[in-house]
Every structure is written in structure tokens, then in C-alpha cells.
Amino acid sequence: MSYKTILAILDTADNSAAVADFAFAVAAEGGAHVIGLHAETIPAVPLVAPMEIPDPVAVQALQDMAHGETVAVERIFRAKAQAADASSEWRSFATSTGYGSAPLIESARSADLLIASQADPANPSDSHVDVDGFLFEAGRPVLMIPCVIRQPKPIKRVLIAWNGSKEAARATFDALPFLKAAEEVEIFSVDPADTALQSPLTSGAEIAAALARHGVKTTLATGHSVDRNTSHVIENRLSDSSIDLLVMGAYTHSRLWQAIFGGTTKSLLQSMTALTLLSR
Fold this sequence. Notes:
By secondary structure, the chain is of the alpha/beta class. The chain has two domains: 5-145, Rossmann fold (3-Layer(aba) Sandwich); 157-279, HUPs (Rossmann fold, 3-Layer(aba) Sandwich), CATH 3.40.50. It is 39% helix and 22% strand. It has ten helices and twelve strands. The chain has helices spanning 16-30, 56-84, 102-109, 131-138, 166-174, 176-181, 205-212, 230-240, 255-261, 264-270; strands spanning 5-9, 33-41, 47-48, 53-54, 88-95, 113-117, 142-145, 157-161, 184-190, 219-223, 245-249, 275-279. Strand 6, helix 4 (131-138) and strand 7 (142-145) form a beta-alpha-beta unit. It is globular and about 65 Å long.
């Protein structure tokens, strides 16, 4: 099993090179086809008082700026594709709704894996990618690249954040190509529950057995939050074990819950230290 269609979400000229490099690196493992996708986002139009009509000069300037970035991003992607000598295609859409527009979501739904870059915490407004939208609307796994990692490297150590949810199960099986190629895979449970199938001491045993049938050898480990958030426990485990890839289910609570109370997914996406594969 391998990924055969990879969608590289090329947001800005600053992060497109890294996203393309990772996309073609993953594609090389299974001979995948890479689609470079960019949304030429048309900003809100300034209005001129007192009649509140669009300012044509400002409109043209904004359109020129957006198209200029599209040209720059396309140039980067095509250069990376040529260097990789890989099967690829370029898609761009002019839209006022950004990456949530129907044509972009439709493209995403036909891919095995989406790859995107974390927004730079120093300049979060530069990013237009709505990761939540892709996870909720496209139904495909998303591989997020931390802004501190710009060059691909082999994925040798993988951590599966396991809580027994349907989202975690989907993420685990969506990550099978990475799991089968890894040297070490750990199933890590935080504050595991006592269920009919397993005790806290054997949390993850069932999914470990399922992965073993795919040829994936795993180890089981547990952590306890005590007075910390689950995200902090996972972050510490990533650092202590030098993890290359985190696999986790995204947004096990509703969007409204996440907006009000926050959550593990949001916290980890804001302070990423490892590649993160998310599924919902």
C-alpha cells in the first residue's frame, strides 16, 4: 500500500518550496502523482465614501498582487516537479472564499494524502489555508509540516496518539504507508480508560494487533496528564523520543466545543515540533 495521489497545498511563495519538497519526497516512495493546488484569493474590496462604491484602483492593485503570488507559486512548483522528474500537474483557482471553495475541496477529495504547511506563528495572517475546512469537508488525511522544518528527512520514528476514537482509528490506517516504512512505531495513550476489551495497562493492544497483521511492529506506552493538558503530555513524548511523525485523530469534539474550550488538536497545531498526520 502506498499513496498514489498527493495534493500539495501551496499557500504562499514563502512556504510552497517546503510543501513541494515534502510532496515529491513522499511521492518518490510509491511513484505517486502530485497535484500542486493554489487558491488565488481575492481580498475584500475597499469601498469609497460617500456612495460606498468599489475603488477601481484598489481593486486592480489587490487583484494584481494576488495573481503575482500565483505566478510565483506556480514557478516554484514547476521547478520542483522538474527537479524531481515526477508525475505532476498544476491547479489554481481564483476565489473569494479561499481554500474552502468547492473546486478546491473537490480536488482534495480525490487525493490519498494532502500536504500543507503550518502557519508561521510570527506571521499567522500570511497563511490562508483552512486546515479545519479540509479535515471536515474533504474527508482526507492531512500531513502538516511544522514551520521549523523545511527540508524532508526519513520518517524513522512514529508516534500514534491513541485514544480509541474513530478519528484516531482513521488516522492510524490512513498513515499505513508511513507506518510500514518506519523503524519504530509507538502507540501512546494518555489517561487510558478501562474498557470491556482492555485495561489501562493494555491500552492500544487491539490496534497493535491489527497493525501487526499489516507487518507493522509496535510498542505500547501510556502517559498521565495529572495537572497538565493532554497536548503537553504528547509534546513531551515527541521531544523525549525524537519522533519524526505524529499520527492523531483530529477534532474528536465538535467545532463549537473547540472554539469555546480549545482542544488537543488546536494546541498541537500551534506548537508543532514534528510532522503531523491528521484525520477526521
